[in-house]
Amino acid sequence: MCASGTHIADYIDRNMAGKRVAIIGAGSSGLTSIKCCLEEGLQPVCYEMSDDIGGLWYYREETPAGGDRLNASVYKSCSINTSKEMMSFSDFPIPVSFPPFMPHNKVLEYFKMYATHFNLLKYIKFKCKVVEVTPTDNHLETGQWKVSTVCLGEQGEDDSEVTSEVFDGVMVCSGHHRFPHKPAFEGMSRFKGRVLHSSEYKKQSTFEDKKVLVIGMGNSAADIATDASYVAKQVDISTRRGSWIFSRFFPGGLPADFLANTRFMMGIPNKILEWMVELMVNFKYSGENYGLQAFHRGLEAHPTIHDYITIRIMSGYIRVRPSITHFTSDGAVFDDGHFEKFDTVVMATGYEYKFPFLDDKIIYNGSDSINTYKFTFLPHLQRPESLAFIGLVQAIGAVMPIAELQARWFARVISGKAQLPPTARMYDYIETRWQEVNETYVKTKRHDNLETFWVPVMDDIASEIGVKPNMVSLLKEEPLFAVRCFFGPCVPAQYRLHGPHSKPVQAKRMIENTFSNITRSTQYRKVEAVMKKREVTWSQRLVSIKVLLYTLTFVFLAFLLAHMHLI
């Protein structure tokens, strides 16, 4: 029997008149989907392959072999790259005591608090695998889907016969970090050392006294190379195009996403914004001096966010290499002709977009990419409102708040309280998205139409359900608060100020506490006495601020003039 605690018939309220919705996956996207369905009077049933919630954030020591990657999870040293205020759900603040950038155990703890607070666990069937989702024979009339599942044994093996149920809607919340992408390299089959994908990595001891090659320069590659550099004999990292390495922190110690993801910043022309981020990166170090220099501009590819890899490179523990031409039995040859011996290779080369329970015709419709309307609905379906992808987006920011808005939107649509636009308009949106992608990003497998900036996609989806903040109205009613919302970080609580299921009092409090929740979480040492000894007057502070502003203004204007070839 599946480990659900209670049978579905026991925990679904039979008095509910709402439609039944199947939710695939109980990670962050699945949890918020359950909650949003309940808010709209729907009957959610969530299927989760593992024995607990959290998805990738449910850390486990071992990852058993097999294409389904049942127990795939983060590695032991993993911390989230977005600040806690920018990754929280809109109506459930992360505790003040949690650190600004939470390690995986704190992320999971937050998800469990969320699930407990909103009583979500009883709607989840654990150790239950969805094997097939197909439209019913009368799908065109009803929009219904047949969902087939199988219970799993202790080792992840199928432990029961396939059973099927009919649902009015399906929310795909299984994520896109399940199936490793492993590019083929010449001679790889001859290499006698160990080869693993980043999804299999768990802890530093894997690399004890090894000569390690990490392929890739994304977040996982930087994390793993840095981890390995503390215990391995030597670590090399191979990159084809280089990378812009962004810090989690802005000068002064506040999270960088407080500055990056604001409405004000999103109003700055992209080319100027690109110059600003490049200036910030180069102010800290020159990528050219350390082999990191990217072949693209600062916002033309998904950024690498890391605070430690550069110092490990400068200390000689990590060496940056060009791309690989081929492997030998005991090492690799790089583009520059250099040969190096290795006994362990880590392929931090990303993941494939795969949903084995759905037919490719349903997902792709003959295309090479997943063409969704606002990252959520498939307009080519006969009943596009009946199936949604939740969290299938590559944004420069946390996916949790985006998934929450997607779930709110789907729940409104499937319950009949909102409608999708005509199919032609959805296709127009997709065509425009492709134009933006082609104009903005370098052409790679990763940069398809799922790549986007954070605030625009949040606002785009929020506008569909009437919860996008009205800055003009806010400015008239509460000018100072409006300024905070426009120039300050666009925290998820902004999407609870008005509209369906708004919680304006709580939302305003969360927005106003954004900065203090970050600074208070790390203040274990009281510094009042120390500050009194070297107290700086307000006049001195104002002078310093003026000097800084004048300097930045001069640099900015000089750049603009130089860029326009006027000097």
Automatic annotation (TrEMBL):
EC number: 1.-.-.-
Segments passing through the bilayer: 386-403, 547-566
GO cellular component, one term: endoplasmic reticulum membrane
Main location: endoplasmic reticulum
Catalytic activity: trimethylamine + NADPH + O2 = trimethylamine N-oxide + NADP(+) + H2O; hypotaurine + NADH + O2 + H(+) = taurine + NAD(+) + H2O; hypotaurine + NADPH + O2 + H(+) = taurine + NADP(+) + H2O; N,N-dimethylaniline + NADPH + O2 + H(+) = N,N-dimethylaniline N-oxide + NADP(+) + H2O
Cellular localisation: Endoplasmic reticulum membrane
UniProt keyword Transmembrane, yes or no: yes
Named cofactor requirement(s): FAD
InterPro entries on file: FAD/NAD-bd_sf, Flavin_mOase, Flavin_mOase-like, Flavin_mOase_1, FMO-like
Gene3D superfamilies for this protein: FAD/NAD(P)-binding domain
GO molecular function, one term: NADP binding
Similarity field: Belongs to the FMO family.
Function: Broad spectrum monooxygenase that catalyzes the oxygenation of a wide variety of nitrogen- and sulfur-containing compounds including xenobiotics. Catalyzes the S-oxygenation of hypotaurine to produce taurine, an organic osmolyte involved in cell volume regulation as well as a variety of cytoprotective and developmental processes.
Identification of the protein by name: Flavin-containing monooxygenase
Organism per entry: Bugula neritina (Brown bryozoan)
Highest classification ranks of the organism: Eukaryota, Metazoa, Spiralia, Lophotrochozoa, Bryozoa
